[in-house]
Each structure stands twice: as C-alpha cells, then as structure tokens.
Design brief:
Helix content: 10-25%
Bound molecules: zinc ion
Shape: globular
CATH class: Alpha Beta
Number of helices: 3
CATH superfamily: DOPA-like domains
Structural class: alpha+beta
CATH architecture: 2-Layer Sandwich
Number of strands: 5
Largest sheet: 5 strands, antiparallel
Amino acid sequence: MADIVSYHAHVYYDPSTTRTAAELVRARIGERFVVRLGRWHDELVGPHLRSMFQVAFAPELFATLVPWLMLNRLGLSVLVHPNTGAPRADHMTHSLWLGEALPLNADALEISSDPAEDVVVPNTAPRT
Ligand code: ZN
C-alpha cells in the first residue's frame, strides 16, 4: 500500500456526443474535491484510445472520490489506477473500471517510472 503515491481517474468521453456530460462531471469534481484536474484530451494521448481527461488525487481521497464517481459518472467510462512507479502494470493490471471497460494501448506505457513524478499538486479549490 505504501507504494501507492497517488491515483488517477481517467474520465472518457466522445467529443461529438458526451463532451457535455464530461464537462458536468469535471465541474462537479472541482467543486467537491481537492484534486489535480488535467487538460482536456479530445485528441488521443498515451495508452488512451478514447478522448479523456485525467483526475489525479492523493490516496486519502480514494474512499470519498471513487464512490462519488460510481454514483455520478453520468454513464461515462472511468479508469481508476494507482501510481506505484510501474505505469504499465498500474493501468493494465492494478486498475479498476467504472462502467464499460475500454481497450488501452499497453505498448504506450513505460514499465517503470519515477514515483516522485506522481505526487499530486492540487489545482482545485472546492467550496466548503
Ligand atoms: Zn493515469
């Protein structure tokens, strides 16, 4: 467990049909949680074969953010994975899916990485 530096939730959408739902989910996360919201990726990036945005969060948030996403993902697929310094295993083996599980391009993932890069610097300021 100590190997988990942080988690990512990747929220997938279709730019032509479900971008509005993704915008709602993103805004609601930002209103509720101290996380790092990543850029919009309408264009495919890394191992991801659908458009998505990333939510990076500290381990302490798992027990509140993940159940919230279970109930509030508006039908979107969400990949939740730990960051342990092993990107390929973290995405392909150690992960969980909310909703439909989507294919990933494992070849785009490094076997190992520097865990220090996955420490989360939040960029949201939730209302209290
Ligand atoms: Zn990720």
